Amino acid sequence: MHEEITYPSADKKTTIHAYIWRPRGQVRGVVQIVHGMAEYALRYEPFALYLAERGFMVCAEDHLGHGKSVLSAAELGYFDGGDGTDTVLADIRRLRQIVVGQAGDLPYFMMGHSMGSFFTRAYIAAHGAELAGAVIMGTGFQPAALTWFGRCAAALAAAFGGWKRRSRFIDRLAFGSYNKKFGGRTPYDWLSADEGNVDRYIADGLCGVTFTCGGFYTLFSIVGRACRGATVKQTPRRLPLLLVSGGDDPVGGYSAGVKKLYDKYVSAGISDVNMIIYRGARHEILNDFCAPQVREDIADFLMRVCAKEN
Predict the structure, then answer these.
(1) Are 130 and 96 in contact (CB under 8 A)?
(2) Measured distance CA(23)–CA(303) in Å, rounded
(3) pTM score, two decimals?
(4) Of 238, 303, 300, 246, which Cα lies nearest the Cα of 273?
(5) In the chain, which stretches have pLDDT less than 70?
(6) Residue from 304, 306, 288, 310 nearest 47 by CA
(7) Beta-sheet strands, E only, within the chain
(8) Residue range 264-306, pLDDT digits in tens
């Protein structure tokens, strides 16, 4: 099914756990998945296997504070020293270097979901010249004042309890409004219209962990960085981009934030920007009723870009 590898984190104390899925025949290209907040890489295994069947080598790592990339369960949702943004970005890039060493000069794509979409947006601004394209899933657009306030709140809470403190107030500040539209069967109905997916998420001990103050500081930091005008403008103009989101995803402002990002990329002169909004779908579109179409649309984008590269 998958191969597990490990490598040292840029924090110089944690071992990062990562996974590789290999196609049986000729390899078209490589897709690196950057997972979201309070989840982990192996949740994407069904999608990775789908891509592998179509000739793509797929890889993903558990970020610091997620999945197996923790020193203990107490560190789930924790980033050392407050802002772990650059550390996570370095760990993402290190996996790319490892996989390129195995795969060689093949078209290489990044695909980020949710928190991972913001890391992907920052990554392509810094290292987009190394890539053939990127898929940005479950993303949004937040004003600088809001992310600044979030960082201040996390730092203030940490001042009274340390970066490992878990603050329900900050959790409500970040996500308190997300579930209002969806009836409240569970606190996570905003994730998916598929109740089975929501229930599996709740039952999974590695999902839904309340972030620490350090985790929230990093979350607000990467969202703020990704939404800066300079970050958008630093994205290579030749880089093909696919933005995919549920129409009822509160992270994307019910598609308004996704459309705003699309317009900013177009205004920055990026020549190949594509956007698909799945009407009625929520945040986890790979685990919602639209998942078959989402998989097909992403595979079509990857194969189109690979055909142009070759």
Answers:
(1) yes
(2) 15
(3) 0.97
(4) 238
(5) 81-82, 310
(6) 288
(7) 3-8, 15-21, 29-34, 56-61, 108-113, 133-137, 241-246, 273-278
(8) 999 999 999 999 999 999 999 999 999 999 999 999 999 999 9
Q: Is 136 helix (H, G, I), strand (E, B) or coil?
A: strand
pLDDT, residue 309, reads 73
> pLDDT tens, 212-258?
999 999 999 999 999 999 999 999 999 999 999 999 999 999 999 99
**Rounded to 5, what percent of the chain is helix, strand, coil?**
50, 15, 35
Residues 195 and 189: their CA atoms lie apart, in Å, by: 8
Residue with tokens 């949740």: 43
Q: Can you tell me whether residue 179 is helix, strand or coil?
A: coil
Q: 214's torsion region: left (phi>0), alpha (psi -120 to 50) or beta?
A: alpha
Residues 6 or more apart in contact with residue 26 via CB below 8 angstroms: 55
Read off the tokens for 283.
Answer: 């945040």
**Rounded distance between C-alpha atoms, residue 150 and residue 42, angstroms:** 29
* ∠ Cα 64 65 69 (to 5°): 60
Q: What is the largest CA-CA distance in the chain?
A: 56
Residues in contact with 12: Cβ distance below 8 Å, sequence separation at least 6, in sequence order: none
User: Six-digit token pair at 182?
Assistant: 């969806």
